[in-house]
Amino acid sequence: MTRIASLLATTALLAFPAFAETPGIEKPELTLGFIKLTDMAPLAVAKEKGFFEDEGLSVTLVAQSNWKVLLDGVVSGELDGAHMLAGQPIAASIGYGTRAKLVTPFSMDLNGNAITVSNAVWEAMKPGLKMEGDKPAHPISASALKPVIEAYAAEGKPFNLGMVFPVSTHNYELRYWLAAGGINPGLYSPDDVSGQIGGDVLISVTPPPQMPATLEAGTIDGYAVGEPWNQAAVAKGIGVPVITDNDIWKNNPEKVFGLTAEFVEANPQTTLALTKALIRAAIWLDENDNANRAEAVQILSSPDYVGADAAVIGNSMTGTFEYEAGDKRPAPDFNVFFRYNATFPYYSDAVWYLTQMRRWGQIGEAKPDAWFDETAKSVYKPDIYKAAAEALIADGNATADQFDFDADGYREPSADFIDGVSYDGTKPNAYIDSLTIGLKAAQTLTGGEIVN
Prior knowledge:
Helix content: 25-40%
CATH topology of the largest domain: D-Maltodextrin-Binding Protein, domain 2
CATH class of the largest domain: Alpha Beta
Oligomer: single chain
């Protein structure tokens, strides 16, 4: 190539920065894991739209059978990173379940879950619901479920509920909703990790894709899960979603992209490239008032990704959500991937998960406020996110006005919860004490008894 031709080629690269690779990538070929849920979308979009490739990465995406297998794959190095439950890297850092040093530079989405009950439970709930015309008023409080649970108990029958993993958002959202309605979801202790101590219900683990079949078989009476598995229950005519997580906690953080701290330390430029590609995917998913969602639905419906019917995925991904069959309501924020600073890894998000672990006994002893802050900062890495965003701005693939880099990593206090309780991430123990059912900040569970 002549010097002039070389200069022209270089100029062309500068003129089209979308194709400029992240320099210094240590590991260009990566294997990333995911679970078949619509909120894995940033990974699928980053691959299918070429954002990984633009950054110099060759990525293979591999579906995992459940969250434990996925976590083990990342910890062992079989997977370089993965779509994770937000609680997984946090729990691993404190040694609850698998102990490992995991970090996240990127939050994958807000909202995206719902709680579904069987048709029989729904029919039993309906007489206690407030109506707006001929349809139930939303959000539906768990207080409407309480007499159903009591009727089961009077007949000597357990009321069984499914969630996807002990440290999942779904577990904590389900428990929050139940407790806000006066139902005790049960406690954990160091020698009893069932989470059913003293509970009015029995909550257990079911992998997400198996939720509808397990409900249909009568093994569980309801479940908390991400999409498309609530809408699948509607499509199959076997259950009714009663509330979305956006009505339990408005714009709650859901999944994260998780890696080992060892991987990030050994591969900082690779981590930067991954984060850049994922941010671009998130922007694409939300830009122009969700204009790209129909294309995203087609991508996700592939057997390589979620593999569910496009119409079922589209029910929640394109601005609506269906409750009872035919009761489809606007839900523009059911899935949020970029707006409202969805991708920024806030310390306060991590602290909220830690407060729920403490509330339900997964953290067995009192911890000072500083411990919550230090633990959050050991896992959530906004500095990597900021570096990636600034690089995208420099590349011309994003603009500065698309980001709001919070100075201290904490969201403003919010009372956007179904029970109206205010959450301030800088005061975790005061928050725990303000909640009704569950352990208080200084309490422990000994021999099945709460000790002050």
